[in-house]
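Researcher: Here's the sequence for the chain we discussed earlier.
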Amino acid sequence: QRQLVESGGGLVQPGGSLRLSCAASGFTADYYHIGWFRQAPGKEREGISCISTSGGTTDYADSVKGRFTISRDNAKNTVYLQMNRLKPEDTGVYYCAARAPVQPMCDMGALRYGYWGQGTQVTVSS
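Model: Thanks. This is the structure I predict for it:
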């Protein structure tokens, strides 16, 4: 059974940092592109970052570029999202998802991802 489990969320003050983890089980994550998505209250789910199977390509939403870094450790079957200089508008439920690599570069279109984790809450507030 393919599973993705996110962890690392929590409450942090503006300007702080968190590192989210996305652990895969039941399948080999390095055969898949992995994306991070978030959903703020009352808003649609948005793609914020993705990483290709090899880790050679990454992409970021403009809202997080320069503050967030995605990486993967294929030996641990885990993908990470390092989030720095967090802002209140980063608050939301963060999900990781996996999709088959139909092309070399990853993308952040949620509808193209078939496997999803349950999400982890990130709250940025003073």
